[in-house]
Design brief:
This is Ketosynthase family 3 (KS3) domain-containing protein. By secondary structure, the chain is α+β, with helices and mostly antiparallel strands. Helix content is 29%, strand content 19%. It has a 10-stranded mixed sheet with strand order 6-5-7-9-1-10-16-15-11-12, with helices on both faces. A 3-stranded mixed sheet has the order 2-3-8. A 3-stranded antiparallel sheet has the order 19-20-22.
């Protein structure tokens, strides 16, 4: 079995914003704990009258209002990236979130200084060509206002021009403020181009639309750029934050949404999907280059395969033959036999929870990987059961899940698969209700599926980095919930929950006052990290004069920069701390407190001057939200 060589690609950085997950750390915790992130549609997204199951035959009425949303995590720092705050309302949310996630992925890969020269770095993002909220508002501003005026003229000819002008003005006010310079933000390709522009990446930067397979095909395109030597690093992934009511209407009219409000991949009682939103990206390099540069390698991509269904019974229904072709192409590219007993330990499936789609995928898996022949069953799962179907970003959400599982040595659960479909018995796979250690003799290996509407299919194979094979898994396992969190029990779950804890680096800084903290933070990043670690280890014991304290969990370059700004500007109420508790091991966070307690420890940070970038679809209720907090000077 060939080992990864110069033709294989390494994943050296990752980042995501997904339902109930502001970052990779929280996403990982949710995956391990089996968190169902599905909620009702947030109030500001729609007018309530859109939800009317009794009238769902109408295109302007829906029978489902459950989905996966990122409202509390979708924030943006405009001045950090040189974006004028006045233009934010006219820019598509996915462009701003993509920029934040791209920067976080680069941080996760070691920071911009570890990237190759900018002209050797590309950006390839899967993004759907769907009418978005900002585009819908602009179309209403340009076209619908004139139509409304004309209808009023026809129905009420006695209205004078002043009254008609008032109607037009009120109509425009309901759509929110308009900045002419912001209209350029409606161009869909800017989801990738804005990343390249603001981060000074001068390789190819473009979006592609392959429906639900978009983000895996973006990764496939990035692999080709690296293997062919045209680029030395690629940011690849997908983005989906299109929750305009017209998008939901399409799925409601198709009766593709779950009436019970649950997405149940491969369950015999599944009745449809739920729409989710999110953005995810990976940083790709040639494996040999990653070794040379001393990069942390999450996993290597052994093979990638893409296909279309060709002529089939219907271009709107999945075709097994097309899916089989994509998967076999990936395994042939990897030089691996998918029917071998140790071929893989995990399959992250497309798994939409639609009866037709799930049945076709299970039939595909039986044909490619063969039936069960004894021994441990590879685990099958679909993260859509937790976050919904993130459409063009679905593949990258599944890929990041699989890569984390391979890297940390954990097999992950799928929710709501209480009674698997009959087709599951013909495969070698089985779902699991709770996380468990991934034990195997060789390298951990997983497959990832993404099958797009219209018949486009993609499959990737990810494998444990060669230098990690044989090493102990990264996480530590313990029975029971992680500290401070109850262990959720998905339906059908049995046995104790598994808590996964991988210690973060923690920096603690203390000084007599804010000016002293600012002086400590004025040093370069390595010095700040050294001082913070020494204090965290107790090598610099506290004294009674240190009334200003700062804790940072997971001190990336970006978070240190945020800490410097927070301390320098003295944002009141921006940060909160607790006394006498260890720092949370969750997402990278900071805490600051004027407490004089010598055993104070940081807990959490809210950085206020950020922009909420989720869009609303409201009629007659005013514009979408504006600033959250005070605009920075």
């Amino acid at each position: 079995m060939p080992a990864p060589g110069t033709g294989q690609v390494a994943i050296v950085g990752m980042a995501a914003v997904l339902p109930a997950a502001a970052d990779i750390s929280s996403y990982w915790r949710n995956l391990v704990d089996g968190i169902d992130a599905i909620t009702d549609v947030p109030p500001h997204r729609w007018d309530e009258e859109f939800y009317d199951p009794e009238q769902a035959h109408r295109p302007d009425r829906l029978y489902c209002r459950r989905g996966g949303f990122v409202d509390e995590h979708a924030t943006f720092e405009p001045l950090r990236y040189g974006v004028m705050p006045a233009s934010i309302a006219e820019i598509e949310p996915d462009q701003l979130i993509s920029l934040e996630v791209a920067a976080a992925a680069i941080d996760d890969a070691g920071g911009a200084d570890r990237l190759p020269a900018g002209d050797r770095v590309g950006v390839i993002l899967g993004r759907g060509g769907i009418l978005s909220p900002a585009q819908a508002r602009y179309a209403q501003r340009v076209r619908m206002s004139s139509q409304v005026i004309q209808i009023l003229k026809d129905l009420m000819p006695d209205l004078d021009q002043d009254r008609l002008d008032l109607v037009r003005r009120k109509f425009d006010e309901r759509l929110g403020p308009h900045q002419p310079e912001g209209t350029i933000g409606l161009v869909p390709n800017l989801a990738a181009s804005r990343v390249a522009n603001r981060l000074d990446l001068r390789g190819p930067a473009y979006t592609l639309d392959a429906a639900c397979a978009s983000s895996l095909i973006a990764v496939d395109q990035g692999i080709a750029e690296l293997v062919n030597g045209r680029l030395d690093a690629v940011l690849a992934g997908g983005v989906h934050h299109v929750h305009d009511i017209s998008f939901w209407s399409v799925f409601s009219q198709l009766r593709a949404l779950s009436r019970r409000g649950e997405i149940r991949p491969f369950d015999s009682g599944a009745d449809g999907l739920l729409i989710g939103e999110g953005t995810g990206m990976v940083v790709l390099k040639r494996y040999a280059d990653a070794q040379r540069d001393g990069d942390r390698v999450y996993a290597v991509i052994r093979g990638s395969g893409v296909s279309s269904d060709g002529r089939s019974a219907s271009m709107f229904n999945p075709a097994v033959a097309g899916q089989v072709l994509a998967i076999r192409r990936a395994w042939a590219a990897a030089g691996l036999d998918p029917t071998a007993p140790d071929a893989l330990g995990m399959l992250e499936a497309h798994g939409t929870g639609t009866p037709t789609g799930d049945a076709a995928e299970l039939t595909t898996l039986a044909e490619v990987f063969g039936p069960y022949r004894g021994g441990p069953r590879p685990v099958i799962g679909s993260v859509k059961s937790m976050i919904g179907h993130t459409m063009p970003a679905a593949g990258i959400a599944g890929l990041i899940k699989a890569v984390l599982a391979v890297h940390r040595g954990v097999l992950l659960p799928t929710l709501h698969c209480e009674t698997p479909r009959a087709e599951m018995a013909g495969t070698r796979f089985a779902p699991i209700p709770t996380a468990r250690p991934w034990e195997c003799d060789g390298p951990r290996r997983a497959g990832v599926n993404a099958f797009g509407f219209g018949g486009i299919n993609a499959h990737l194979i990810v494998e444990q980095a060669p230098e990690q094979v044989g090493a102990a898994p990264a996480p530590a396992f313990a029975a029971g919930p992680a500290a401070g969190r109850p262990a959720p029990a998905p339906p059908g779950a049995a046995g104790a929950a598994v808590a996964v804890d991988e210690p973060d680096q923690v920096l603690w800084l203390a000084a007599a006052g804010p000016a002293g903290l600012a002086e400590l933070l004025a040093a370069d990043d390595p010095t700040v990290r050294r001082l913070g670690v020494e204090r965290a280890r107790g090598e610099q014991p506290a004294d009674g004069t240190e009334r200003a304290r700062l804790g940072i969990v997971g001190p990336t370059d970006r978070l240190l920069a945020v800490a410097r700004r927070a301390v320098a500007r003295g944002w009141p109420g921006a940060v909160a701390g607790t006394s006498g508790s260890a720092p949370s091991r969750c997402s990278p966070a900071m805490g600051s407190s004027p407490s004089s307690s010598p055993d104070w420890r940081p807990s959490s940070l809210r950085v206020p001057p950020t922009w909420p970038v989720t869009s609303a679809c409201r009629t007659g209720r005013g514009p979408p939200p504006t600033w959250a907090g005070t605009a920075p000077a």
